[in-house]
Design brief:
189 residues, alpha/beta, four-stranded mixed sheet, single chain
């Protein structure tokens, strides 16, 4: 595989990592491309296959795991897989891009382990657990059960934040955007 720079953004759901990644992708001078993850879940309203995720069945996901087609993957919830296909990294490197990930904490750390020299791993820290819960509820995309699962998972994710290269505070979105831009600009130059 050819190689380039890898930028990992990980955080609990509702921390703002997706907003920050979209902001960075809008900055052409960074030469970033989004790594589209594979997911075995159904698309949410407005999500597009091949743009937001590669949506594949759990059975297909398991076949691809057996064929060693993933850089990393995780069964996030029972029979609910997310992962990064090797073919996706190669596709983007062939385009001369630096690859940015909006990825689960475990997946982010796995990428860092595999590509330690060329990866910047950023953990997005939410203002508080209460704010995290408020953001998840404001989305109105998930059941109470799912929200509780995400909040329980957030506890574990926050505990591994120190394993990342950078902990980016997202108390104020505009400040976080500027901080993220500065970090990534320096890393890719």
């Amino acid at each position: 595989m050819s190689t380039g720079k890898l930028i990992v953004f990980s955080a609990p759901s509702g921390s703002g990592k997706t907003t920050l990644v979209k902001h960075l992708l809008s900055k052409e001078e960074l030469k970033l491309a989004f790594s589209i993850s594979a997911a075995s879940r159904s698309p949410r309203e407005g999500e597009i296959n091949g743009k937001d995720y590669y949506f594949i069945s759990a059975e297909e996901f398991q076949k691809r795991i057996q064929n060693n087609e993933f850089v990393e993957y995780e069964e996030v919830y029972a029979n609910n897989y997310y992962g990064t296909l090797k073919s996706e990294l190669q596709r983007l490197w062939d385009e001369g891009k630096n690859i940015i990930f909006d990825i689960d904490v475990i997946g982010g750390l796995n990428i860092k382990k595999q590509f330690p020299e060329q990866t910047l791993a950023v953990f997005v820290q939410p203002p508080s657990k209460e704010e995290l819960e408020r953001r998840l509820r404001t989305r109105q995309t998930e059941s109470e059960e799912k929200i509780q699962m995400r909040l329980a998972k957030a506890e574990k994710e926050l505990s591994v934040a120190p394993q990342f290269d950078i902990i980016l505070q997202n108390f104020d979105l505009e400040v976080a955007k500027a901080d993220a831009y500065g970090l990534i600009s320096e890393f890719v130059s």
